């Protein structure tokens, strides 16, 4: 995902909203345990707990872009001296057809007595923008309603004049739409006369015309105050300017001087108006227009203005009502205040001036738009955090669900590796039997070593677990006659039994109703045991420790019994163990039970306390831990349950507790497809780089907002 451009934080957030929308069909969450599948943004919108914060964030992004776009189209308020050309300034931004709906004349009946908003046609065509604009009007004027300006010029004039004698209408705005404003990127507020002294009816309302202007100006990016040079010296005009300046505090106020004489250079003419100086200093900028009734005015208009001014073109092709429009262009304030004394005044005027029609491009949003935009930006950031938190909570819940599934699987395995009395079964590797057998021979008494040559050939020929068992069968009766007082039992139980495991899981509802549950579970647990066979190659026993245990075993036997064991043959040393494990019955019986899955690798000591295993109790316990651990992780793989290796479980084995550390570099088992979607939303998920970028970028942008 590409990074957003550097600009205002609102623009950055709008661009981030586009990034957000682009994730609709792209992965935003990846399941890493088990490593299968991903979720798109649309997937998240379908999940309870994520749908609402996700949709709210999408809506917040949409509203922000909407308010950003409205703010990009500034609203310019037009106020000023009566009959100074205020309506003409509004008309210059409109098409010829719409100009007919703007009353222009000297009579009060043709004056402006309502707040009339001229807005782009696209605002009316968009339900979202129109609704937002209506909310802005209500916020500025305190009125939940507005009038639409009629298309008929005559009816429009009546609406314009309707507030003259009815103060109740003054607070209800009028809205007119004009297609020409779309291309110009501007909206206009044609303000009523605010200088006129209020009548008795006005005073009874407790709110002055200036109060209404102050409220309306909160929507404006700028306010234009229009006056004529002939009236600048009048205290009433200057007073009106200062009152409007105060009422529109915080909004850029531009001074427009209309109908300048065409017999002097503009800066010299304005410099001679001392009364104008204070108004120039307090304005954001100054625009002037010559009186086009004076000959030669066109020669004084900068050539740049002639090329770009819409109003200038009306003098070439007069508008429909025959009235040309004033051609306003900017004059730098320092030139006016210096009275043209600056050496390059003419050159600077030609290079720096701009037409009034180009003013909207340099304006920012109005107060209400700015506040709405900032509030929405903060709302977007708040919703981003809420969505991020919701995803984090959901990921935690999915991990908890995976942990519950894993715990259920662990309970099944624990129950299966205990006998009917609840005692843990032992799992002794064939490798341990072979290695202990060899340790017994290495540590045999010196006088018994001559007998070793008898067994040397046999060891080379068949030193396997199967040979040991076969030898043990013939020796078992000898062991019994030794009266070694080892605990003898007759119960035969495998360490892991496929049928028992499958039956335990039938009621866990892990299998779809459409399949044979028992057969499928047997197949799954068979896969677990096949995977478990790989553990054998990773079993390591300490040779020195086995020698020490074997030496200790020899030392505990009477001489007669040592001689009998030495003379008995190849498998005789392990008869100590076989006799301890239920008199050998469990060994021989359960070897057959697991031989289909673990051919000759595990000897099971069912229900035997590990202390009764005599000399190899400690390494046998180690084998059991390893096999149990391998069986658990293999079962997680087969059933598609998250391993959660960063939090391995702890279990009890006899009197010892140990942690099931994941086997390093052992691929235990392949997953069974039917279980991979057992709970597709359970597991360990992590955000993709795309959604992480969105959250991190939002945090960066938020740091720029005070």
Q: Pick out the low-confidence regions.
A: 1-7, 482-492, 580-601
* Percent range for β-strand residues: 5-15%
Largest sheet: 9 strands, mixed
Kindly state the number of beta strands.
Answer: 16
> Mind telling me the C-alpha Rg?
47 Å
**Percent helix range:** 40-55%
Shape: rod-shaped
- For the termini, the CA-CA separation is 28 Å
Mean pLDDT over all positions: 79
Number of helices: 33
The secondary-structure class comes to alpha/beta
**Order of strands side by side in the largest beta sheet?**
5-6-4-7-3-8-9-10-11
Task: Quickly describe the structure.
Helix content is 50%, strand content 10%.
Q: What would your notes on this structure say?
A:
It is a single chain. This protein is α/β, with parallel strands linked by helices and 706 residues long. The protein has 33 helices and 16 strands. It has a nine-stranded mixed β-sheet with strand order 5-6-4-7-3-8-9-10-11. The relative contact order is 0.11.
Keywords:
706 residues; alpha/beta; 9-stranded mixed beta sheet; 3-stranded antiparallel beta sheet; rod-shaped
Per-chain topology:
Blueprint: H1 9-22, E1 27-33, E2 38-40, H2 41-44, H3 51-71, E3 75-80, H4 86-91, H5 96-99, E4 116-120, H6 121-125, H7 127-141, E5 147-148, H8 153-161, H9 167-170, E6 174-178, H10 180-184, E7 187-190, H11 200-205, H12 209-216, E8 222-227, H13 235-247, E9 253-260, H14 266-271, H15 277-282, E10 285-290, H16 297-300, H17 303-308, H18 310-316, E11 329-330, H19 333-338, H20 345-352, H21 367-416, E12 426-429, H22 430-442, H23 452-462, H24 465-481, H25 498-505, H26 517-532, H27 543-556, H28 559-568, H29 575-580, H30 585-594, E13 602-605, H31 617-638, E14 650-653, E15 656-659, H32 673-676, E16 684-687, H33 689-702
Parallel strand pairs: 3-7, 3-8, 4-6, 5-6, 8-9, 9-10
Antiparallel strand pairs: 1-2, 1-16, 4-7, 10-11, 12-13, 14-15
Helix pairs in contact: 1-3, 1-33, 3-21, 21-31, 21-33, 22-27, 25-26, 26-31
